[in-house]
Write a structure and sequence with these properties.
About 40% of the residues lie in helices and about 15% in strands. It is α/β, with parallel strands linked by helices. A six-stranded parallel β-sheet has the order 3-2-4-5-7-6, sandwiched between helices. A five-stranded mixed β-sheet has the order 9-11-10-12-13, covered by helices on one side. A two-stranded antiparallel ribbon has the order 1-8.
Length: about 425
């Protein structure tokens, strides 16, 4: 930690050490007095003394000599280590292999928690991207963010790839940004999604600077269960979606989780957030990398001309697919749209957006384990829309009990759909 003790407005005789020196211009009179106090001519503005130019010119010459010496040493290293030189160039450019999708592990047909899937994807991709480094705010075993066998960053030891940030999410996010901004590395950080509030100031700066930092936010809903409402995100998801230049992926299964990692690694114009579940969720059919990167797509339908749409993200997509299949068995024309990343979908051509969420299909059931804020943009009108969202704080209890309590069940999804049908 660097503590810089300063005097605000230093040199302004009447305004230094006051709030006036912080929030307003000094004014012509006080500016002239400050110049006099600091040994400058108060009659001159925007002038740089010759001695300053001389100082910088001398420094530039000295640094130039150091730079030439370094370049000579670097060329010798490149000649002696051509394979490492190519790897270093890849790292400097942030280049990732084109065949990452082929490195994804096979999934158990029963499905699993997306935090677990994320950890497996991370460890599958890490050997292919040796400049990928990161860690967690004291939660690596829980959010599955540890690169196995890659070593740890420790005092006087920087050969590893895993950071142990401690319980300090803001510092973690800032460090991830710094490592990413420096270049040659692609850094990630990880914590529970509810603690993204602590990350937000530095995450916002990453968005402003368009830094491609990556953040894993696990335990993404009330399904955290026994940890209680303090650890169960509600408003964090819509809040994250409001940040410009930030991709907020909420994958619906292991396949979408892999797609989210690949999309995040390909993204270079801002940070990416991957939201993962604590609880196991089923493996879905119909997921493709191309469709996923469009932000929303049809994951199941019983007809090309649906009479009702299910719109969902994350763990709720599976609920909707199960409900939709039951309705299809009754002869209903239904479609389930997985919406893992809204801002990407908003950038798609109108024709594509209309093909996924047709305006002619007015009946819609929206299901997401978070505040409904923001979903109104996907209504045709309120009377033909039903919501299953979490618009209160969560509660403490086994997650299956909470799912019943808050209505996140196939039965409740069916009930809402049948009200419209």
């Amino acid at each position: 930690i660097i503590i810089a003790k300063t005097t605000i407005g230093y040199g302004a005789p009447n305004k230094q050490n006051t709030s006036d020196a912080h929030g307003a211009p000094l004014g012509a009179e006080e500016l002239a007095a400050a110049k006099t106090a600091l040994g400058f001519d108060p009659q001159q503005s925007f002038t740089v003394p010759q001695e300053v130019y001389d100082l910088f010119a001398n420094r530039a010459a000295a640094v130039h000599r150091v730079n030439l010496k370094w370049r000579k040493a670097f060329k010798a290293w490149v000649d002696a280590h051509p394979a490492k030189a190519i790897l270093r160039e890849r790292a400097e450019k942030g280049s990732i292999p084109a065949d990452l999708a082929s490195k994804i592990p096979a999934w158990d047909a029963k499905g699993e928690a997306t935090r677990s899937a994320s950890g497996k994807v991370l460890n599958a991709l890490a050997p292919e991207i040796p400049f990928l480094v990161g860690g967690s705010a004291d939660l690596a075993p829980s959010n599955k963010s540890y690169i196995k066998g890659a070593g740890d960053i420790a005092p006087a030891s920087f050969a590893g790839r895993n950071f142990h940030f401690g319980i300090r999410e803001l510092a973690m996010t800032a460090i991830v940004n710094g490592v990413t901004a420096y270049g040659g590395f692609r850094a990630y950080g990880a914590t529970f999604f509810v603690f993204s509030d602590y990350c937000r100031p530095a995450l916002r700066l990453a968005a402003l600077m368009e830094l491609p930092s990556i953040f894993i936010f696990s335990h993404d809903s009330f399904y955290v269960g026994e940890d209680g409402p303090t650890h169960e995100p509600v408003e964090q998801l819509p809040a994250m979606r409001t940040l410009p230049n930030v991709l907020t992926f909420r994958p619906a299964d292991a396949n979408e989780t892999a797609a989210a990692w690949i999309a995040a690694l390909k993204h270079k114009a801002g940070p990416s957030c991957i939201l993962t579940t604590r609880q196991n969720i089923p493996l879905l059919e119909g997921v493709s990398q191309e469709d996923f990167e469009k932000g929303a797509y049809t994951i199941y339908q019983s007809s090309n001309h649906p009479e009702l749409l299910f719109l969902a993200s994350g763990s709720e997509v599976g609920l909707c697919v199960e409900a939709a299949k039951k309705l299809a068995g009754e002869g209903k024309r239904v479609r389930v749209v997985s919406m893992p990343e809204w801002s990407l979908f908003a950038k798609q051509p109108l024709a594509y957006r209309e093909s996924v969420i047709p305006g002619t299909c007015r009946k819609r059931v929206i299901v997401e384990a978070a505040s409904r804020f923001g979903w109104a943009q996907y209504e045709v009108n309120p009377s033909s829309t039903r919501y299953i969202t979490l618009d209160t704080f969560g509660a403490s209890g086994p997650y299956k009990v909470l799912a019943e309590h808050f209505g996140f069940t196939v039965e409740n999804v069916l009930e809402k759909a049948r009200e419209l049908l």
